[in-house]
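Intended use. Records like the one below are meant for learning the mapping from a protein sequence to its folded structure. Do not use them to infer anything beyond what is encoded.
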Amino acid sequence: MRTSPWAWVPSLYFAEGLPYVAVMTISIILYKQLGLSNAEITFYTSWLYLPWVIKPLWSPFIDLIKTKRWWIVSMELLMGAAFGGVAFTIPTSFWLQGSLFFFWILAFSSATHDIAADGFYMLGLNQHHQAWFVGIRSTFYRLATIFGQGILVMIAGNLQVLWRNGISYSWSLMFYGVTGLFIALFLWHNHILPHPKEDEAKTGVNVRTIWKEFMHTIYSFFCKEQVVVAILFLLFYRMPEGLLAKVSALFLIDKGQNGGLGLSPQEYGLVQGTVGVIGLTLGGILGGLCAGKDGLKRWLWPMVCAITLPDIVYVYMSYALPTNLFIINACVFIEQFGYGFGFTAYMLYQIYYSQGKFKTSHFALCTAFMALSMMLPGLVAGALQEWVGYRMFFIIVMGCCAITFIVASLLKIDPQFGKK
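Structure written out for the chain above:
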C-alpha cells in the first residue's frame, strides 16, 4: 500500500523545524529568565550554530552506515531524549552545564536529521510530488517556528503564573511536553515513512573514497570564479542581523531598568514568535515572487535595503521604550518582513554560486558559511551590548549595514538568473 505524502511530509518538516528554534531561540528566553547575563547567553547559544557550520563534513558519511529513514527516526528519538534531558536538568543545581550539554546533543542530532530528511524527501517522492510539496514543507517548517517561539514560550509563561513564578519548574514542564511530542513523532514516522528502494546504505564505497571526493569538492569550490567575493558576501551580508538576532530577543524581554521593553513570555510569544514569524514568511514569499519575475540582479538592491534599513525600528524602540503592544508588534513585523524579503537575495545567490558539476555539495558548503555568518557576530553581540547599552548597540548595528552594501556591490550576477 502506497503511503500518501500528506501523511509524513508535514510532520517530517515540523520535526525538522522545532529543534532548531528550540536551540536558537527558546534557549535564549530560558537562560534570560534563569538569570544569565546577555554576554553569557549570546556566547553560549551562538556556539550551538557549530553543528550546522560543520554539517557538510559528516553529511557524505551518513549513507555509509544506515538508510536515511533509519537516521530520521533514530535522530527523532535522540532529540526526544535531549529535550527530556533539558527538562530534567533545569530545576537542578547544575542547570547550566546540564542544559547546555543536552542542547548540544539536540543541535547535533537536529543537524543530522536535516541531512537525512532532505535526502529522504527526494527519494520518497517522485519529481511531480517533490515540486508540489516544496511549499507544504516550508509552511510546516514555519509553523514549527511559530509553535516553538510563540506557543511554547507562551505556555512556559502561563505555567509561571500557575506555579506563582516557579520559573525553573515551568520551563521544565514545558520541555517535558516537547519530549512527549517527539516520542510521538518518532513512533509515527517509524510506522508511516515509506521504504523507497533507493534508500539503502552504500556498498562498495569506503571512508577513504568519500573523503577524497569531499576534498576534491572543497578544492573545486575554492577554485570557482569570484570565490573571495562570494565568501565575503556569504559571511558579511547578514552581519547586522547576526548582531541583532539574539540581542533583539533579549531587548524585548529585558527589564525596563536595564533599557529593555520588559515583555512577559506570553507577550514575547505573540510579538516575536507569532507576528514576527508571519512577517518573515510574508517577506520571503514576496521576495521569491519578485525575483522569479524579474531576476535576482533586478531586485538585489531593493533586497539589500530591505534586510538592513528596517533595523532602525530597534533604535526607535530603545529610545521610545513603547508599552503599546500594537506599536511593538508593528515594529517587529516591519523588521522581520524586511529581513524575509532581503534574505531571498542571500539564498538565491547561494544557488547561483553553486551552479556547476558539484552544485549539491557546493550549496552545502554555502550553507555552512551561512551558519558561520550568524555564529561569529553572535559570539560577541551580548558582550558588546552590555558594554555600550541597548541604544548604542542598535546604532552600531545600523552602522554595520554599510558592510552589507559594500559586499553586495562586489557581486557579478547574470541578469537572467532567477527569471522564470
